[in-house]
From TrEMBL:
Its cofactor is Zn(2+). Keywords: Cytoplasm, Hydrolase, Metal-binding, Metalloprotease, Protease, Zinc. Binds 1 zinc ion per subunit. This is Peptidase M1 leukotriene A4 hydrolase/aminopeptidase C-terminal domain-containing protein. It is found in: Cytoplasm. The active site is at residues 305, 392. The keyword ATP-binding does not apply.
């Protein structure tokens, strides 16, 4: 017996789950879900079967056909990363039903009270299961190696509606006896309840399981795309304009990478507490409202999540130790889509911003270089704690290096063959390298594949982009140190990306007075583009400029995206005015904590615990 994934109890001697049928009753007053999960295995099994759980109460395990109880136990030891093992003792069985109740503190779920929503009138709940949080909603083999199909019945209050990263079957009245062991019949069929049914017919890793329940509306923006959000006209209309070009991106993606396999590509704009820019849940990408910038530049996040439809969702990393197979490929694919839809300069700016972020994260891990490797060891490590730009940008650089070596036409053919060969599979780095060498003979003599995948830091044949606008922006940023502020005619055509790249390349050792003068001219602290605002606030904090503490506090209280929380809290606890800024960090987190998703709460707590 041996685990197949450092973040899962799933055992190599156990058959993998192939199908799950979920019945879920949403109890908003208690912030819990009463549920049942029927698991179907790839083959009958006798003996212990190990499942992952976190903060779940298990009430029964029954044989699917006879409903006779099956022996089970929850491990007495709770691992801080993996949670608890649910051990089910089977006797030549391939299917069983587990009934359970989630915790109000489920790490995957954020329950929002009415005041925390756009409409301020009805509650809202949504999921974030990546990397290892599906186990806090239902017991499962929570590893990307175990791909599952599923069906789900969600029982919710009638005034709310549900969406899932799955095909919607119907919205209907509850039916007697369908609750099974999920909850009491009286609860399931109570007045004012409806059932939303969904099915996912393509095998996905558990981290792509996703739903949201709230007062939702939508806009049609293409033949395959609806924009969903809370039913507020201001949000829906602005989002529809921002992402109007989505169908063109899908078509370009298909030209580059092959047919789009998921039928729909809908988008859900979540409340500001959503911890990521986007989450590539199949058929229903989840987005933060901070990507809506009014100039269509937020579509680059959509391009990234769309690219996952081929690299990440179709082909998935077998464990988080191979995360670059998801994110490096997707970053490459995103930039190819952006290049076609928005132009080479936009793609070059994205590469430049990524280069800067990659080098900063390599510096961040200088005391633990293991996490600067593409293929790394994560035993005893929480994947949320080591989330960085390394798998994205170093992975991109590796693939870009291969493209430069063999030429784009040859690399495009290789990519299409790679995707068609491994679609709906979960693979590791070794599998990719074997395929690469078989299909591009001699590539290992031209590129040091071992150095790129197993080496620390950044190989010398990585490549900083050479576009004219990128070079100009970096040069202008360096000149700021000696008092040269960009002229208004120089910034007249700048969008958020240009400002972001400029600010991130300004030396952090500039004077507070210089930072204040830059803001006085260009009002960067008030920018509606959070990439620009946060990059400026980081610069202000690093220069010891206390004038912006109130804007930092306001920003940390109005959004929960970790891309902004991580650098701002880090800058506060490491700032020039350390004691004052540390006090501010503690105070803001104490007041804002309940507005953050549990994953974001954990990340901020980790930052504060290291420095305070």
């Amino acid at each position: 017996m041996a685990p197949i994934d450092p973040h899962s109890y799933t055992d190599s001697s156990n058959p993998l789950t192939t199908y799950i049928s979920l019945t879920l009753y949403f109890d908003f007053p208690s912030s819990t879900i009463n549920g049942s999960s029927q698991l179907t295995l790839s083959s009958p099994h006798s003996g212990p079967l190990l499942l992952d759980t976190r903060s779940l109460t298990i009430t029964s395990v029954l044989d699917t056909q006879t409903l006779i109880p099956i022996p089970f136990e929850l491990s007495p030891v709770i691992d801080p990363i993996k949670g608890q093992t649910l051990i089910v003792t089977l006797t030549n069985q391939s299917s069983f039903v587990v009934s359970f109740v989630t915790s109000p503190n489920s790490s995957a779920l954020q329950w929002l009270s009415p005041p925390q929503t756009f409409n301020k009138s009805l509650p809202f709940v949504y999921t974030q299961c990546q990397a290892i949080h599906a186990r806090s909603i239902f017991p499962c083999q929570d590893t990307p190696a175990a791909r599952i199909c599923y069906s789900a019945r969600l029982n919710v209050p009638r005034e709310l509606s549900a969406v899932m990263a799955a095909k919607h079957v119907e919205r209907r009245q509850p039916v007697a006896r369908e609750a099974g062991v999920a909850c009491d019949e009286g609860l399931w069929c109570a007045e004012g309840r409806v059932v939303e049914e969904f099915v996912m017919e393509q095998p996905i890793p558990p981290y792509l399981f996703a739903f949201a329940v709230g007062k939702l509306g939508f806009r049609e923006v293409g033949p395959r795309t609806r924009i969903y959000a809370e039913n507020a006209v201001s949000v829906l209309d602005v989002a529809a304009r921002e992402f109007a070009g989505t169908e063109e991106m899908i078509r370009q993606g298909e030209k580059l990478f092959g047919v789009y396999e998921w039928e729909r590509f809908d988008l859900l704009v979540l409340p500001p507490s959503f911890p990521y820019g986007g989450m590539e849940n199949p058929r229903m990408t989840f987005l933060t409202p901070t990507v809506i910038k009014g100039d269509a530049s937020g579509a680059q996040v959509v391009a990234h999540e769309l690219a996952h439809s081929w690299t990440g969702n179709l082909i998935t990393n077998k464990t988080n130790e191979d995360f670059w197979l998801n994110e490096g490929f997707t970053t490459y694919a995103e930039r190819r889509i952006v290049e076609v839809c928005q132009g080479e300069e936009r793609a070059a700016l994205s590469i430049g911003i990524g280069w800067k972020g990659l080098n900063e994260d390599i510096e961040r891990f200088k005391d633990n270089l293991e996490f600067t490797k593409l293929k790394n060891k994560q035993d005893g490590v929480d994947p949320d704690d080591i989330y960085s730009q390394v798998p994205y940008e170093k992975g991109f650089q590796f693939l870009w290096r291969i493209e430069r070596q063999i030429g784009r036409p040859a690399f495009d053919e290789f990519l299409k063959k790679y995707i068609s060969t491994f679609k709906f599979q979960s693979i590791d780095t070794e599998t990719f390298i074997t395929f690469l060498k078989a299909n591009i003979p001699g590539i290992e003599k031209e590129i040091d594949l071992v150095l790129w995948t197993e080496g620390t830091g950044l190989p010398s044949d990585a490549y900083e982009t050479e576009s004219s606008i990128y070079t100009k922006l970096v040069s202008l940023a360096k000149e700021f140190k000696v008092g040269r502020m960009p002229r208004e005619d120089e910034v007249a055509d700048w969008q958020g990306q240009e400002w972001e790249l400029y600010l991130e390349n300004v030396p952090k050792s500039v004077e507070a007075s210089q930072v204040a003068a830059l803001d006085a001219r260009y009002r960067l602290a008030e920018s509606k583009d959070y990439e620009v605002k946060v990059a400026f606030l980081q610069l202000a904090l690093s220069s010891g400029c206390r004038d912006y503490y109130s804007e930092v506090e306001k920003t940390l209280k109005e959004v929960g995206r970790m891309k902004y929380l991580r650098p701002l809290y880090t800058a506060l606890v490491q700032g020039v005015e350390k004691e004052e800024s540390k006090i501010l960090a503690r105070q803001v987190f104490a007041e804002a904590r309940e507005c953050y998703h549990p994953i974001a709460q954990g990340v901020v707590e980790s930052i504060l615990s290291k420095h305070i």
